[in-house]
Amino acid sequence: SAVPVIAIDGPSASGKGTVAQRVAKALGYHYLDSGAIYRIAALAALRRGISWQDEAALAKLAQELDICFLDDEIYLDGEIITEAVRTEEISRGASEVAVHPALRRALLNLQQSFRKAPGLVADGRDMATVVFPDAQTKIFLTASAEVRAERRYKQLIEKGIHANLAEILQDLQTRDARDSQRAVAPLQKSESARLLETSDLSIDQAVEAILDYSRADA
Ligand code: C5P
User: With a 6 A CB cut-off, is 152 part of the ligand 1 pocket?
Assistant: First the structure.
């Protein structure tokens, strides 16, 4: 039978990355951060002088990417870029390159190659709708824009990075709009996905809820 997949989709800063990693660890499953793949594409393009608007060049670039995820680090062409893909500029770039259908197609096999025994937890925007439509468990994880902005703000302040709550909220709303309104693979709850609203949940509670769902779906 097919290797089980738990697909977790949701908007920016919903906490799905943290929650997905914890679920993967609890089950001993592999983990795919699909957003990181779009971030890497944006960074690689920037470095090679390819415009985030140049769909054909981006699709070609995607075929040539030498990416490796190892021990919590991300490598591009052998260089650690874990921090470099987390900047605000690359967050914007990722959501700009992600609108191009040819690039999304070019990144499909790479994402699907993460599906290996004993199982995979994959987080992103279109895990349940496009990349793993046959996922055993599908979760749409959200929180209000205000709660997400506050979480992101606290993260930055804790890291000693200057941050402005109003700007963060504005930025999140711009990215949400671009991700939800694009023609191809928009951020959207799959009909068969369970809605998990985390505004009033702790990380532990969200992880427990998903583990319960995955047991129910097994
Ligand atoms: O999840 P993260 O914020 O790292 O994703 C960065 C951007 O990549 C998102 O804003 C979205 O535009 C894009 N993305 C996507 N499909 C995915 C994951 C991310 O289009 N499966």
Answer: no
CB 67, CB 40: distance < 8 Å? yes
Ligand 1 centroid from CA 34, angstroms: 7
pLDDT in tens, 77-109: 999 999 999 888 998 899 999 999 999 999 999
Cα distances from 188 to residues 59, 124, 135, 141, in angstroms, run 23, 11, 16, 11
Please say whether the beta carbons of 53 and 96 come within 8 A.
yes
129 Cβ inside 6 Å of ligand 1: no
39 lines ligand 1 (CB under 6 A): yes
How is residue 167 written in tokens? 């700007």
Tens digits of residue pLDDT in 109-163: 999 999 999 999 999 999 999 999 999 999 999 999 999 999 989 988 998 888 8
Contact 189, 140 (CB under 8 A): yes
Nearest protein CA to atom 11 of ligand 1, as residue: 95
Structure tokens given for 210? 């998903």
40 contacts 61 by C-beta, under 8 angstroms: no
Look at phi and psi of residue 85 and say left if phi exceeds 0, alpha if psi is from -120 to 50, else beta.
alpha
How many angstroms separate the CA atoms of 30 and 134, rounded? 17
Residue 41: helix, strand or coil by DSSP?
helix
ipTM score assigned to the predicted complex: 0.98
